[in-house]
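Archive record
______________

***
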Amino acid sequence: MTTPSVSTTPFTPLAAPPRTIRVEVWSDVACPWCFIGKRRFAAALERFEHRAHVDVVWRSYQLSPETPAGPGRPEVEALARMKGLDPAQVRQMFAQVTAVAAGDGLRYDFDRTLAFNTFDAHRLLHLAARAGGAPLADATMEALFSAHFEQGADLGADGALVSLAARVGFADHGWDEDRVAAALAGDDEAAAVRADIDEARALGVTGVPFFVVDRKYAVSGAQPAEVLAQLLDAGWREANPLTTLASGDACTDATC
């Protein structure tokens, strides 16, 4: 009888798979800095070597919840009245943010932008996450921002959000226009929107955009892509620490 040979090669366990990090972004559709922040975060994420292991969740926030529901009205007029400012001063403020946005490839048009209550737009964002996950939610957020700031769409008008949902591909996930319209006519995802706003309050969020990684690291405002890249890196290192078991002689520079 032949005795089977036994390998003496030591067993080396496979490295544990990397742990995915979660980035939550609180923003409002009516926030011009939030669209800029979204573009800058996208640039940081595109260059991040572990981007395949990053989950992005868009969270809801309302800057002006008191804005009446229904059709929108000119943004310049609405902000001037709300803040008690001269319309010329408001236009100057908008001109400054428009110039910044242009540097990130965005074409703001505040002469056409309409102020509207964003609550239902946030409900649509949550519907997108439910219907198609993160990719559809991201596409919906992008479309909402662009429609509001670049196209002058009245997102408070009847049917505007339903049409937008059709354009970004809700139907590909089983949500035709009738189903989206029925959901928005009811109170679908209203609790989720309110929960996001309550969470923001609990976290101490006072302005948006607000980026949080694994509820441990946060950055406020439309920071440069380099700063957002540092946020991603900090979150990644926390979630996936490298443990050095031993060290010895090594080269540290070209003089070795």
About this structure: The beta strands are 21-27, 54-60, 73-74, 114-115, 210-213, 217-220. Residues 1-8 have pLDDT under 50 and may be disordered.
